[in-house]
Amino acid sequence: MKNLLIYQSTEYDCGPTTLTNAIRYLFDREEIYPDIVKYIMLYCLDSYNEAGEVGKRGTSASAMMFLSNWLTQFGQVKNFPISCNFLAKDEVVLSENSRIIGALQQGGAVLLRVYLEVPHYILLTGISGSDIYVFDPYYEEPDDPELDKEFFEEGITFITDQPKRANRLISITRLSGTGVGFYEMGPYKEREAVILFNTNTRKTPENSIEYII
């Protein structure tokens, strides 16, 4: 059985929460090794803030790169059907033939670094026309009167009926932005992503679905 996707517990744990959500999205609960959950939490939250407090600057790109490699090697050793790739800088694009779009067309999931006032990790789970299905682990209620007005800018739609897949539908145009607005990936030099596949359910390119620009 597939689990519900989860929300972060603090202001800082979007990284491990989103990586865990990628595992929950791709695999049934009965398939998931407890080691995976353990080591995601162990190696994330590795950054220090200006006061020297560990974890209060979230999770670094180095930790995500390490976990991408660790998960792939774990899969090989344990015969667990997972494959991961870490992307950075100008590799992280959403053009028609990009690796991220190809991964979503083939049934993969993508951990993506964006901005939500500060750098923030979200999970991409699919495509609908020129929009991307997203699960944002930072819990917000769309009817909250204190909700930031930026959530209602063009290209952002709340989803409330797909708890195992998505809680946002965000336009490719917005995600591709080089600024620091809500859900923009920002400058190329700061971009990072992790592509994850369940290799047992990965679709072939011939069976993938094209997206519309």
Silhouette: globular
Assembly type: single chain
Beta fraction: 15-25%
* Average pLDDT number: 95
Q: Please estimate the helix content.
A: 10-25%
Please tally the helical runs, counting DSSP H or I stretches of 4 or more residues. 5
Task: Report the end-to-end length measured between terminal Cα atoms.
Answer: 34 Å
Give the topology string: H per helix, E per strand: HHHEHEEEEEHE
Radius of gyration: 16 Å
Describe the structure.
The chain has helices at residues 14-26, 34-43, 61-78, 99-105, 172-175, and strands at residues 82-88, 109-116, 118-128, 131-135, 156-158, 168-171, 192-198. It has a seven-stranded antiparallel sheet, with helices on both faces. It is globular, with a radius of gyration of 16 Å. The model has no long low-confidence stretch (mean pLDDT 95). With 213 residues, it is an alpha+beta fold. It has a single domain (14-207), classed as Cathepsin B, Chain A (Alpha-Beta Complex), CATH 3.90.70.10. Helix 2 (34-43) packs antiparallel against helix 3 (61-78). Helices cover 24% and strands 21% of the residues. Strand 3 (118-128) and strand 4 form a beta hairpin. The protein has five helices and seven strands, in the order H-H-H-E-H-E-E-E-E-E-H-E.
What's the layout of helices and strands?
Layout: H1 14-26, H2 34-43, H3 61-78, E1 82-88, H4 99-105, E2 109-116, E3 118-128, E4 131-135, E5 156-158, E6 168-171, H5 172-175, E7 192-198
Antiparallel strand pairs: 1-7, 2-3, 2-7, 3-4, 4-6, 5-6
Helix pairs in contact: 2-3
Organism: Roseburia intestinalis L1-82
Protein name: Peptidase C39-like domain-containing protein
